[in-house]
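Suppose a colleague, Dr. K., hands you the sequence of a protein chain of 124 amino acids and asks what its three-dimensional shape might be. Before reaching for any lab equipment, you can write down a predicted structure in token form. Begin with the sequence itself:
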Amino acid sequence: MPVRRAAGWRTDCVERLFSGVFQRLGRVVAHFTSLSTQAEFEANTNDVIPLFSVTYVIAILFAILSCMRFDCVRNKAWVAGVGVLSAGLAVLSSFGLMLFIGVPFVMTVANSPFLILGTQGDML
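The predicted structure, expressed as tokens, is then:
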């Protein structure tokens, strides 16, 4: 409860300070608090989520296609597919476990599948 009260106080203070004084002066002020990045990500989720989906598909296809060879002996398409599947299941299970035990989802964490896929794809 005290954390929510502090977060509410912080947002009210920033809104009152920057919307009233500087708006009358015709100035634009950019501010940064510990919650401003989270609030900005949450405000843009409707625009960003479809782009994340397309980017995930492109990254997965690149990981699989980069392991394909014309030589049947050195072709690693199945290994890449299983590696991408393994990375995806690791992300889903870790996100599910964290949400199950009550850790709040921070939108910045949405970038972690790219990092995991990049490191997993490097090992293929």
